[in-house]
Amino acid sequence: MTTMEEQIRSFIKSNLVVFAGDAVFTDDDNIFELGYVNSLFAMQMLSYIENEFALTVDNDDLVISNFATVTNIATLIRKIQGSQSA
Amino acid sequence: MRTAQEILQAAQAFAEEELRPQAGAFEAEEEIPREVIRRLAQQGFLAASFPVQYGGLALDPVEYGLFTEEIGKACNSMRELITVHTSLVGESLLRWGTPAQKEHWLPKMARGELLAAFALTEPDVGSDARGVRTTYVKTEEGFLLQGRKKWISFADIADLFLVIASDAQTGEVTAFLVERSQTGVSTTKMSGLLASKASHLAEIDLHDVVVPHENVLGRIGGGFSYIVNSALDHGRYSIAWAGVAIAQESLNAMATYARTRRQGGKLICEYDAVQALLADAHVQLQAARALCLSVGRLRKDKHHEAMIQTSIAKVFTSKMAMKVATDAVQVFGGNGFSNQYPVERLFREAKVLEIIEGTSQVLQPVIAQQVLRTCHHRGAEA
Ligand SMILES: Cc1cc2nc3c(=O)[nH]c(=O)nc-3n(C[C@H](O)[C@H](O)[C@H](O)COP(=O)(O)OP(=O)(O)OC[C@H]3O[C@@H](n4cnc5c(N)ncnc54)[C@H](O)[C@@H]3O)c2cc1C
For the Acyl-CoA dehydrogenase/oxidase N-terminal domain, which residue ranges apply (chain B) (predicted)? Predict the structure, then answer.
């Protein structure tokens, strides 16, 4: 079974702007700082997360650091899932 | 409650009776009379995509696209009002507004009691929207805004502006809901335009404007990545359908003319070369419509590819509309040059679609990046 982290990683990988070869990044690398994203990426990732995990991210959680690493994204999703099912 | 089909029929009837016969006059007089806007609002057409709870007609993205086409075929400037009021500002409020903001603004917008405009562009900042120079400083009473916006559709008559500004210190971008009635806000109508003369374009001067804290839309500093990008995405979807609208109207005009104009003892539609123009326009238009419908379905499903596909549709349909409108002028010959015939206006109106909501040149790299990500043969890199 694919883990949440693997799902997120695969989405990010297929959306990074890399002209040659493949992007290499760990679950704790800041994907915005790697410079491989275009201006649409933040919104694309938000709609992917909301759709794929059937949740709504509050404005208060729309802090770029919450979306900067695979680990942070997974933590945010688990937090929202916890609060929305509570 | 009316079905989507009934709403689209009502939009078509409204366009037929109130807009198409007047569109040329609106442009000549450089305004859409408030009374016509009032009657449009009465039918709920300023809130076609809003949920019913806010006074909207709850059209889904595909239906809203078809609705945009109906209005856009008859009057590009009225379509422009719907683009900025409903798609750019309304959808932004729906997506990012607090419950209080939605309750306060959306029903008034739906009733047409207030018109909204989207204020991003400035005299020196266009494509590089991240670099807006209108600034804000946080104070106890609210946010102090300074700056100048330019090219803002309907700003001359709008009551509410969604203003994009940057933090004077950090450069972080934030979106503010600014009311015309606030001290320090003034507008100057723009004239001498190629088209969209009836779109009430204006410059907005913001001089020491204090915007209350509750008028921040979304998060402080989240204005570019989220608000601007999602607003422009809604705008691009609307513009994609505006391209279909202008092309369809141009094609209808050229087919009608070609069936009645005689030269050399024949109707001009009997000439192969004229038929080639008609056929090519039809083919291009069908492709554009299919693309817009497919994007509409992606948007309805909230698919994460919807944004990039919307940009593709916007680039394609705006170029297609320009080509079809140009060919329509060709079919009309000298008459195509006269404002006695609508193709002269359609030709001018088509051009703006390649410029607004991101020029074609600015969108192309984003599309190219998707090509490079998704279309290459794996393992073939040097
Ligand atoms: C009729 C009309 C209505 C409008 N309504 C609104 C509105 O309601 N609200 C609003 O905020 N704005 C509005 N605008 C402004 C519009 O969005 C801008 O004109 C547009 O974004 C382009 O910016 P610019 O005019 O400053 O051109 P520039 O950004 O100066 O571009 C000039 C040329 O350089 C090219 N260029 C610029 N940057 C790049 C790049 N990075 N790569 C390649 N090429 C580049 C462009 O493609 C273009 O060909 C409107 C404009 C018009 C004409």
Answer: 4-113
> Among all residues of chain A, which has the CA nearest to that of B218?
A59
- Per-chain mean pLDDT for chain B: 96
B102 within 8 A of B110, measured Cβ to Cβ: no
At B217-232, the pLDDT tens digits run 999 998 888 999 999 9
This prediction's pTM: 0.96
Cross-chain Cβ contact B304/A63 below 8 Å: no
Listing DSSP states for B187-226 in one string gives: EEE--S-SS-TTS--EEEEEEEEEE-GGGEESSTT-IIII
- CA B37, B41, B45, B46 dihedral sign is positive
| Helix axes B272-300 and B61-74, enclosed angle (nearest 10) | 140
Question: Are the CB atoms for B84 and B116 separated by under 8 Å?
Answer: yes
Q: What SS3 state is found at B114?
A: coil
Show residues of chain B in contact with A39, CB under 8 Å.
130, 224-225, 229, 366
**Residues facing B144 on adjacent strands:** B137, B210
> Quick check: A63 contacting B, CB < 8 Å?
yes
Choice between A20 and B209, residue whose per-residue pLDDT is larger? B209
